[in-house]
């Protein structure tokens, strides 16, 4: 395997060796390159002040996406193009069109957050800009402004989108694609630094071999959680195996009865397919995090992380999803709900990795819904996340699957509540009679996001809400979202 990180910056290939494999891109830019336009605000992927743009080849074409530099490890730049706010100005010093739009709209106050906003708008400009206000709000949800200057920033974004302006990055697409293609043909990456190791294999076979030799290594996908282990917990990771270079894990396959989603598929890339499967899944992905996090985080990583407040597992468990795991000895498959054993413990052997998750299509005669309760509507961690999958036979409940996140040490089905409902008439009286069973299903904790009493009441009320939406669809219950369905 190759010993040097190689990526494109300012039109040329940069090569780096002998570097801390968990150095963040932010620290590299600020402390190694003195490129201080990229700011540190939160160091946890929340505020967007550190936003940079990465270019990569997708199906042979160049794609630019905004990411948070504060939780991206430097070696994950390998094979990509890096663009920072300093790179936008022209050789004669003229402002980039996005920067000029910000000036003309007075879209800055203290200026600390401005580079991050500019980079988010730059990425949007290169992905088919839309002037729709809701779309722009969604694009910028991961960029926070403490001076509350959003009105003028949105105005600048609308003006850029309406102008459909081009820049020099558009004119050099062919050259950039050629450079990226040359890097794609390089072998995988291996770094050794002060007794710590980083690997970026390019095939599943290489990955299984590495895990057999380094069981218990940290398997890295989007770094949206692992990055915080370094920036907030200051942990040293002895061995990291990055799966972001393995194309076989970044595919979504439509099968006869569902979708097979590779572990390396990001939220952004899964969004459209899941929204088509069910609009509520699309809206869940929209609200799961910011644009920058959706561009980095993966469905497989959200599952493998095992967090009790991960947003995708409850919905996938309600749909009876199945998990695919693999090691050098072969693969195995299990119901997703069986993967979560207890808080911090999953059914994954030290030399195994999450390969894919299979999501069945909802039955034609079923009803499905998922709800996310959080303090902020956008870009916040859930206090409670609920999912319901109901099959009726006439007016009676033939089957129902109920799963909550945030109510236990793992994403967990409400089995007692399900038993109390199945075979009964789908009615308000049945729901009210079944609610006491939920106290036997869950003993929620109190923490900074919600009290146990709030969580218990919210969980009960979400079941009641699901009943209202299925029995009385004419009753408005949701705030309009961007995932394909009204949502609250």
UniProtKB/TrEMBL annotation:
Which Gene3D superfamilies does the entry link to? Answer: 3.10.20.30, 3.30.465.10, [2Fe-2S]-binding domain, CO dehydrogenase flavoprotein, C-terminal domain, Uridine Diphospho-n-acetylenolpyruvylglucosamine Reductase, domain 2
Q: Which domain of life is it from?
A: Bacteria
Q: Where is the 2Fe-2S ferredoxin-type domain?
A: 3-88
Q: Which Pfam families match?
A: CO_deh_flav_C (PF03450), FAD_binding_5 (PF00941), Fer2 (PF00111), Fer2_2 (PF01799)
Against InterPro entries, the record matches this protein to:
2Fe-2S-bd (IPR002888), 2Fe-2S-bd_dom_sf (IPR036884), 2Fe-2S_ferredoxin-like_sf (IPR036010), 2Fe-2S_ferredoxin-type (IPR001041), 2Fe2S_fd_BS (IPR006058), Ald_Oxase/xanthine_DH-like (IPR016208), Beta-grasp_dom_sf (IPR012675), CO_DH_flav_C (IPR005107)
Where would I find the FAD-binding PCMH-type domain in this sequence?
191-364
Q: Which GO terms describe its molecular function?
A: 2 iron, 2 sulfur cluster binding; FAD binding; iron ion binding; xanthine dehydrogenase activity
Task: Alphabetically list the UniProt keywords.
Answer: FAD, Flavoprotein, Iron, Metal-binding, Oxidoreductase
EC no. given is 1.17.1.4
PANTHER family per the UniProt record, alphabetical: XANTHINE DEHYDROGENASE
Q: What is this protein called?
A: Xanthine dehydrogenase small subunit
Q: Can you name the source organism?
A: Sneathiella chungangensis
Its taxonomic path starts at:
Bacteria, Pseudomonadati, Pseudomonadota, Alphaproteobacteria, Sneathiellales
Originating gene = xdhA
């Amino acid at each position: 395997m190759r010993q040097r990180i190689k990526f494109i910056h300012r039109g040329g290939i940069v090569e780096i060796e002998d570097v801390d494999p968990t150095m963040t891109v932010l620290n590299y830019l600020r402390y190694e390159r003195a490129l201080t336009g990229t700011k540190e605000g939160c160091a946890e992927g929340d505020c967007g002040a550190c936003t940079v743009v990465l270019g990569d080849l997708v199906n042979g074409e160049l794609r630019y996406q905004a990411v948070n530099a504060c939780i991206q490890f430097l070696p994950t730049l390998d094979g990509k193009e890096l663009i920072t706010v300093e790179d936008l100005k022209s050789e004669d010093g003229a402002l980039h069109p996005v920067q000029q739009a910000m000036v003309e709209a007075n879209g800055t106050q203290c200026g600390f957050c401005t580079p991050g906003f500019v980079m988010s708008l730059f990425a949007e400009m290169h992905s088919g800009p839309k002037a729709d206000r809701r779309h722009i709000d969604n694009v910028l949800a991961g960029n926070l402004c403490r001076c509350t200057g959003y009105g003028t920033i949105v105005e600048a974004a609308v003006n850029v989108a309406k102008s459909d302006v081009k820049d020099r990055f558009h004119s050099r697409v062919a050259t950039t694609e050629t450079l990226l293609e040359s890097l794609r043909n390089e072998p995988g990456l291996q770094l050794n630094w002060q007794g710590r190791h980083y690997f970026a294999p390019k095939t599943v076979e290489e990955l299984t071999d590495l895990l057999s030799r380094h069981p218990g290594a940290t398997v890295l996908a989007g770094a949206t959680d692992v990055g915080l282990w370094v920036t907030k917990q200051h942990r040293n990771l002895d061995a990291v195996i990055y799966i972001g270079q393995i194309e076989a894990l970044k595919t979504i396959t439509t099968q006869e009865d569902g979708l097979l989603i590779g572990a390396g598929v990001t939220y952004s890339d899964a969004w459209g397919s899941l929204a088509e499967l069910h609009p509520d899944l699309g809206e869940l992905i929209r609200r799961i995090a910011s644009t920058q996090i959706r561009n980095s985080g993966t469905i497989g990583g959200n599952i493998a992380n095992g967090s009790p407040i991960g947003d995708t597992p409850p919905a996938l468990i309600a749909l009876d999803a199945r998990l695919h795991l693999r090691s050098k000895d072969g693969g195995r498959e299990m119901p997703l709900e069986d993967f979560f054993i207890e808080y911090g413990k999953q059914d994954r052997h030290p030399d195994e990795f999450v390969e894919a998750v299979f999501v069945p299509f909802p039955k034609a005669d079923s009803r499905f819904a998922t709800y996310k309760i959080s303090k902020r509507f956008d870009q916040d961690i859930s206090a409670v996340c609920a999912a319901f999958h109901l099959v009726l036979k006439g007016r009676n409940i033939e089957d129902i699957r109920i799963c909550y996140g945030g109510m236990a040490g793992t994403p967990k089905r409400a089995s007692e509540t399900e038993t109390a409902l199945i075979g009964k008439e789908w009615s308000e009286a049945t729901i009210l009679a079944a609610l006491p069973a939920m106290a036997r299903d869950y003993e929620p904790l109190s923490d900074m996001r919600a009290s146990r009493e709030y969580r218990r009441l919210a969980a009960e009320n979400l079941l009641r809400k699901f009943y209202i939406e299925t029995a009385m669809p004419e009753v408005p219950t949701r705030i309009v979202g961007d995932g394909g369905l009204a949502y609250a």
